[in-house]
Amino acid sequence: MDFATIIGIFSGVGLVVWAITSNSGLEIFVNIPSLAVVFGGTIASTFIAYPLTEVLRVLAILKNAFFAKSEKPSGKIKEMVEISTIARRNGILALDKELSKIKDEFLKKGLQMVVDGIRGATINNVLQLEMDNIWKRHQLGHQLFKDMATFAPAFGMIGTLIGLVQMLADLSNPGSIGPKMAVALITTFYGSVFANLLFLPISIKLKRRSHQEALRMQLILEAIKSIRLGDNPRFMEEKLTKFLSRAERMKTSKAAESSKKKSE
Amino acid sequence: MDFATIIGIFSGVGLVVWAITSNSGLEIFVNIPSLAVVFGGTIASTFIAYPLTEVLRVLAILKNAFFAKSEKPSGKIKEMVEISTIARRNGILALDKELSKIKDEFLKKGLQMVVDGIRGATINNVLQLEMDNIWKRHQLGHQLFKDMATFAPAFGMIGTLIGLVQMLADLSNPGSIGPKMAVALITTFYGSVFANLLFLPISIKLKRRSHQEALRMQLILEAIKSIRLGDNPRFMEEKLTKFLSRAERMKTSKAAESSKKKSE
Amino acid sequence: MDFATIIGIFSGVGLVVWAITSNSGLEIFVNIPSLAVVFGGTIASTFIAYPLTEVLRVLAILKNAFFAKSEKPSGKIKEMVEISTIARRNGILALDKELSKIKDEFLKKGLQMVVDGIRGATINNVLQLEMDNIWKRHQLGHQLFKDMATFAPAFGMIGTLIGLVQMLADLSNPGSIGPKMAVALITTFYGSVFANLLFLPISIKLKRRSHQEALRMQLILEAIKSIRLGDNPRFMEEKLTKFLSRAERMKTSKAAESSKKKSE
Amino acid sequence: MDFATIIGIFSGVGLVVWAITSNSGLEIFVNIPSLAVVFGGTIASTFIAYPLTEVLRVLAILKNAFFAKSEKPSGKIKEMVEISTIARRNGILALDKELSKIKDEFLKKGLQMVVDGIRGATINNVLQLEMDNIWKRHQLGHQLFKDMATFAPAFGMIGTLIGLVQMLADLSNPGSIGPKMAVALITTFYGSVFANLLFLPISIKLKRRSHQEALRMQLILEAIKSIRLGDNPRFMEEKLTKFLSRAERMKTSKAAESSKKKSE
Amino acid sequence: MDFATIIGIFSGVGLVVWAITSNSGLEIFVNIPSLAVVFGGTIASTFIAYPLTEVLRVLAILKNAFFAKSEKPSGKIKEMVEISTIARRNGILALDKELSKIKDEFLKKGLQMVVDGIRGATINNVLQLEMDNIWKRHQLGHQLFKDMATFAPAFGMIGTLIGLVQMLADLSNPGSIGPKMAVALITTFYGSVFANLLFLPISIKLKRRSHQEALRMQLILEAIKSIRLGDNPRFMEEKLTKFLSRAERMKTSKAAESSKKKSE
């Protein structure tokens, strides 16, 4: 799990708890019916909006986004340069025994097609199709959590309205007005916390993740094109480093030099 | 009807009712004039905005989205592989007697054109045109319910404003202020519930559904292209599985193997 | 005028009036200064934003959208099939005397160019240009009313703020606080009603209308292409019905059959 | 300056002033610190967001949008037809002495390139590039005022919050609560008026203006293409009138007829 | 640092401080827990949403956007014209020794490829790829601060809700209600100030900056194309000035004339 995520979750929840406990007990902010309305209502609306299979699929993507280590593009480039060097020295067919060592499904698939001698345009089409569909699936997850971030504050307000209406309908005991309003507002509080500390950040994370995946796959696509055309590994490497930010490039330059030495 | 939808509707409505009844009677939240303003106003604005024919068309799409079982892409792929195998073994004209067995209108139409020997570009144009128009019609439904989700809270606020103005104009009886405000707020409550538990989830569902339909039709388009060009059914199957998510692919692999055996 | 629009306007206004009169007199909701601030302010901002010629043009489009009967695509298809049949039987030049009978300006223009023997690419360019510009003009109307739907609630709030500030600046007479706040809130009420029962629905209607117009013109474009190339009228009809929804197609099938008989 | 703009500004400001003075003196709505927070804060945020050169450039565009008379497309068409007629009768080189009479920079540049015998594709590229950059600059102005329309109500709320916090921190004098809240709310009032009667309408005006400029340049582009290819001036005129709305076309038809007579 | 930015930050903060101190002491607006909730919460949500590497990368972009002097396009054009003149007079290979003097990494890279005789299409591809990736990285920064501008007011509201609930839960001491509400509202105040005087302007600045960078790189791309094709430096200059606004062009014309003299 990304270190920043852990810091974010702990510090975010910690801050809210600290802000509460520095002035009162935490118990006045624990209200099960309020929690049920906000969380339950959000889930209910999500289940009306999305088929069960899509909800489950998003959970899988989510686990992946938080726990699977995102591979660095610089490492990927190194791998591609090594493959390209082998292909250049020993011919494309020599890649056949390398295939079993490759873990990246997308890359493996693409190289397999190169080894099988399938036409370049066809390889491009097939990989492009896969990229489009992975992109769409990630977008689905991004959209689902964005919708949840819309539902949560709405159900927060619905819960608060329920409490306010009940309070206003019976003002016979003036002393209970304050506490009743306090309880009513807790639902809005829950809705806002869920949306801004959970659903919205997750939605953004999935969007960023889909951009990273797209970048990775575009990089592989370019590399496979170069390998197929028999480009010089150095030139390919230079082209691929275009995908890196300036900061990454500096860090990469040393690794690249050592990998160049190997390839020579 | 999708199981998640049923859970969603029941748990959503149930939660709200439970949240109300745990603190007061349900009757203080039943107010026919408030309901009339929110629901009636939303319908009225929708009827000004959309021609009658489009409203009716959306109702048909809606029924379809909730009750018609969405066909799984994996099942569709199996069907396409079988058709492709027949075309490969017995020639394209052999598909003519298969056509009557096919229920999918879009697929039938496309294969009919292949059998009739119509040019590939023309087949593509005609099917693409159909896809575009089905897409536009689904977008219409998505947009109509999104607009309703905008109108409902607005009329909720209009109703609340009516109640507040009436209350403020006559403050002679202080004891009635609370109950009057309670009634005024119920309209906002209705507007929020309608928007977030009904119109917005339906709007999202129709958007998702249009994506699924587009996927299905794109899959068929690719398959028809392969059949027309006489591609190897196995290669076509591999290409089509690109449309499936990783999870679906694993589930499909067994079905695919059995279908392969049949086709060999 | 579309029947749904009439129902919408009457029921919408009726509902609001009914909701008011069921609890108080209508007169406390009539406030000329409030009306002036909301309606006048909205018009003023619109006049700063849009040149006079564009405002007038939108009024013309508006009249058209509400009162001109939108032609059904199915009727248009029937007309195109008849023209195509004549062209096929008697040659394209035979269309020359048909031209005077055609009321649709866009279709007439297109056919005239076909009869004049102008090159296909040029015809396409000219008609496409006209389509783009009609589309842009409709978008203008859609956008203008959307902007008005933004201005109206804003001026509603401005009016309410004026009333609140005046009330708060002089609290010497506690008995007048209620009625003064009531009057202040009426401006927000007006802004919300104008936006949601007038400007927003009209904006959506103009957007839908522009989609319908685009559909009609695309249909004519396709038909003219077919006529120019001498396509079989039946094949053309089948292609054109792609523009219809499933519901319309069923209704059309009978009309189509009778028109086919004529063309045979 | 456009007549509608003058009406809009005067009636908008007049309405607000009238609404205020009909119930109280104008002086309770004049509050220099509030004005400073809203206007100053908006300008401050704008200066952080945009480089000084861009702010100045937008002021120039703004002056142009409000004071420079927007040329009518119909007049432009007449001009183009005259030029085309000269080119047709006396050859393209005859345009050389006409160039000095042309005031429109974009048109002049384009015709100069035609006279210089530069290749059609190059002319198109150069003019297209100019169009894109003019478009981007107009978009900048549109966006800057849209951002100001976001900042103004935000600083209005910030000012109101400052006043509210100060009032709530010292409730010792109950009699001053009302006036203090009144002053606090004036900031929100200013923010709303600035946004809706100034920044938002200006933003929309600049957007419309950029559309008009784009239309004008597209029209010139088409005309230059026709002149270069030696099209019949009448056919060119017909093509160019596609850019006009129906209303403008009717008005134009007479002018066009007279210009046709001249060209014959 | 851009002069307008400094003015903006100082005047913005100054205005808010002045507005506060003109009516009360600054100390009632200093509240560390409120600050912690708003700023800490915003950072926490950002860290959940974005991987640590991306947050750090954005900080680098930010430093650059505020402190690195943005190069003027007119200066860039002058540089390109000089290079083009050398290439025209002494041949493209003569550029080789000029390369070491060029500081602009993007330009250097492009010219190096021209000198190395790499094919035009390849040069275009490589530079386009670099442009796309720089664009995406700038978009990331823009989006990150836009998200922070969404989180800040949300945590402002969360903090206010915490304060309100605590106040309402214990109304035993009426005298403390005012000050407690004051403290609660300070969090909303912080959220609004952070969003509108910090995060939103920075987000816009990064968006503008990415547009400027794109413009600069597009200009270089055009220039390299011209140099490669051996265009006349004057014609190239004219083409490049299309990227300048009218105001810049006038200022440039003199510099251009002097540079022309040199090139002759």
What is the subunit organization of this protein?
Answer: homopentamer
Mean pLDDT, all residues of chain A: 84
Q: Major sheet of chain A: size, sense and barrel closure? A: none
The largest inter-chain interface, given as chain pair and residues per side, is:
A-E, 51 and 46 residues
Spatial gap, N to C terminus of chain A: 37 Å
How would you classify the helix and strand content of chain A by structural class?
mainly alpha
Strand content of chain A is under 5%
Helix content of chain A: over 70%
- The radius of gyration computed from the alpha-carbon positions of chain A, rounded to a whole number of angstroms, is 26 Å
In DSSP terms, counting alpha (H) and pi (I) runs of 4 or more, how many helices of chain A?
A: 9
Low-pLDDT regions of chain A: none
Could you say which overall geometry of chain A the principal axes of the C-alpha atoms support?
elongated
Note the run of SSEs of chain A as H and E. Answer: HHHHHHHHH
Total count of strands of chain A: 0
